[in-house]
């Protein structure tokens, strides 16, 4: 899990070399909430990985070869395969690596978990990806859940446990 405290690579930085066998590389930005999802999955599943932090305000040119939008998270395998977009990276890691599955096997339950993710993505971030939860506070999160009784039950534990 090297690289968590490494400097961020920016314009003019050389691209990292090949990904070592048995490791997956995460192109990241320390404070990006979308990358945090992927980091959580990597840790929850105990996946060996390395982190390459990217300066998103001064991006290296080669990052666009990894993701045409130049955004993180991006996963890179030792075979050179590239996977990007936060929900997609998380789903890939859960499906491609052994161990406890993080998503339910039941199609409805899995779809419901994805709906929860969509709802909370809207609560936590605006269209520019700026985290709003700290500005909104828990009180507004509870208000949001009151507007969605089913979500309230799932998330706040009313009726059945949150999975």
Automatic annotation (TrEMBL):
Q: Catalysed reaction per UniProt?
A: RX + glutathione = an S-substituted glutathione + a halide anion + H(+); L-dehydroascorbate + 2 glutathione = glutathione disulfide + L-ascorbate; methylarsonate + 2 glutathione + H(+) = methylarsonous acid + glutathione disulfide + H2O
Q: Which residues form the GST N-terminal domain?
A: 22-101
Give the top-rank taxon of the lineage listed in the UniProt record for this protein: Eukaryota
Per the UniProt record, one Pfam family is GST_N_3
Q: Name one GO biological process term.
A: L-ascorbic acid metabolic process
Under the cellular component aspect of Gene Ontology, which terms does the record hold?
Answer: cytoplasm
GO molecular function, one example?
A: methylarsonate reductase activity
> Which keywords fit this entry according to its UniProt record?
Oxidoreductase, Transferase
As recorded in UniProt, its EC number(s) are 1.20.4.2, 1.8.5.1, 2.5.1.18
Which InterPro entries would you find in this protein's record? Glutathione_S-Trfase, Glutathione_S-Trfase_N, GST_omega, GST_Omega/HSP26, Thioredoxin-like_sf
Q: Give the protein family.
A: Belongs to the GST superfamily. Omega family.
General function of this protein: Exhibits glutathione-dependent thiol transferase activity. Has high dehydroascorbate reductase activity and may contribute to the recycling of ascorbic acid. Participates in the biotransformation of inorganic arsenic and reduces monomethylarsonic acid (MMA).
User: What name has this protein been given in UniProt?
Assistant: Glutathione S-transferase omega
Query: What is the protein's species of origin?
Result: Pavo cristatus (Indian peafowl)
